[in-house]
Specification:
This protein is globular. It starts with 12 loop residues before the first helix and ends in a 13-residue tail after the last strand. The chain is built from 13 helices and seven strands. The protein has a domain of about 190 residues: Rossmann fold (3-Layer(aba) Sandwich), CATH 3.40.50.150. The protein is about 40% helix and about 20% strand. By secondary structure, it is α/β, with parallel strands linked by helices.
Length: about 280
C-alpha cells in the first residue's frame, strides 16, 4: 500500500500524527478519513497533554481507542501502548501498523486484561460521554486499578455547559450530542475522579474544538492554528457554522467555562475498587 515507515520515532506530536495520513488514506474509508482531519486538532491537543504529563517510554493504555489514531501516534512518539476497545477489529490495520497491542473489552462491564498497577498512564479521551452513568464509577475504578501508584490519567470530554450547549437548551433543543449518553461539567468530572482514588493535577477548558470543528476542506483542518486562521476560513467559506464559530471565539477565549472541551489530568493516589468477577458484569 505504500505505507510510510511507522516504526520511526517521531517525538513531536504533530509529526507523529501527520505521519499517519498516508496510512489512513490507504484504507479507502471515507468515515475514518473524515475523522482524521475533522478531529485533528483535538487529537493533537491530547497528544501534547500526554507528552506534558507522561514521559516518552512510559507504558500507556488508550481506552476506547478505536480507530487507534491516537494510540498509533503515541507509539510513534516513543510510548509503549496498549489499546482497549469494544470492537478492536474494525481498524486493527492502524493499530498493527504501529505495533500497538489491542484488547477487547466493554469498559462499562469488563475487567481489563491488565495486571494491577501495570501502566504509567491512561488515556481516556472522548469516551466518558458515551458511558452509562450507572457504570461510570466502576469504569474509573478499573482504570485506577491498572495504573501504577502516581500514574496519570489524561481525560477529555465535551463540556455540557459550553456556549453552544447553552444556546441549544435556551432554544428548547436537547443540548447533548445525539450519540452521547451523558455529558458533564468540569466540576462533575473533577468530583468523579476524586471519589475514585485520584488527585486532580490540572482541570482545564480547552478552546481547541471551538477553533477547529468547522466546515472546511479536509486538509484545511490541519492548518487551523489561530483565530486569524478561523477568520480567514469564515471569510472564504461563510457557512452558518463557520460564522458562528468566528463570532463566538472571542467570547469563549475570555470566558473559559463556555468552551466546548473539558480536559483533566489526574494522578492515582489510592485504589477504591469494586468486587471483582471473572465474568462480565
Amino acid at each position: 500500500m505504500g505505507e510510510p515507515c511507522l516504526n520511526t520515532v517521531e517525538p513531536k506530536p504533530s509529526s507523529a500524527l501527520l505521519g499517519l495520513e498516508q496510512l489512513v488514506r490507504s484504507l479507502n474509508d471515507a468515515r475514518i478519513l473524515h475523522s482524521f482531519y475533522f478531529e485533528f486538532g483535538r487529537r493533537l491537543y491530547t497528544l501534547k497533554l500526554v507528552l506534558e504529563f507522561c514521559p516518552p517510554g512510559s507504558e500507556v493504555v488508550d481506552l476506547g481507542a478505536s480507530p487507534f489514531i491516537v494510540s498509533c501516534a503515541l507509539a510513534r512518539m516513543g510510548y509503549r501502548v496498549v489499546a482497549v476497545d469494544y470492537d478492536p477489529e474494525e481498524y486493527s490495520t492502524i493499530a498493527s501498523a504501529c505495533g500497538v497491542k489491542t484488547i477487547r473489552a466493554d469498559l462499562e462491564r469488563d475487567r481489563l486484561d491488565l495486571a494491577d498497577g501495570s501502566v504509567d498512564c491512561a488515556v481516556f479521551t472522548e469516551v466518558l460521554e458515551h458511558l452509562n452513568p450507572y457504570y461510570v464509577g466502576r469504569t474509573i475504578s478499573e482504570i485506577n486499578r491498572v495504573l501504577k501508584p502516581g500514574g496519570k490519567l489524561v481525560l477529555t470530554t465535551p463540556n455540557i455547559a459550553s456556549l453552544f450547549r447553552r444556546l441549544r437548551l435556551l432554544l428548547g433543543a436537547q443540548p447533548q450530542y445525539v450519540t452521547h449518553v451523558h455529558e458533564y461539567t468540569k466540576k462533575e468530572v473533577v468530583e468523579l475522579l476524586e471519589r475514585h482514588g485520584f488527585r486532580v493535577l490540572e482541570a482545564r477548558y480547552s478552546e481547541i474544538n471551538d477553533l477547529t470543528l468547522v466546515d472546511a476542506e479536509p486538509e484545511e483542518h490541519v492548518k487551523l492554528k489561530s483565530y486569524q486562521d478561523l477568520l480567514k476560513l469564515a471569510a472564504r467559506k461563510p457557512t452558518k457554522l463557520n460564522i458562528l464559530r468566528a463570532l463566538a471565539y472571542p467570547l469563549v477565549k475570555v470566558i473559559p467555562s463556555l468552551r466546548m472541551l473539558v480536559a483533566v489530568v489526574a494522578e492515582k493516589t489510592g485504589y477504591i475498587g469494586f468486587p471483582q468477577r471473572t465474568t462480565r458484569w
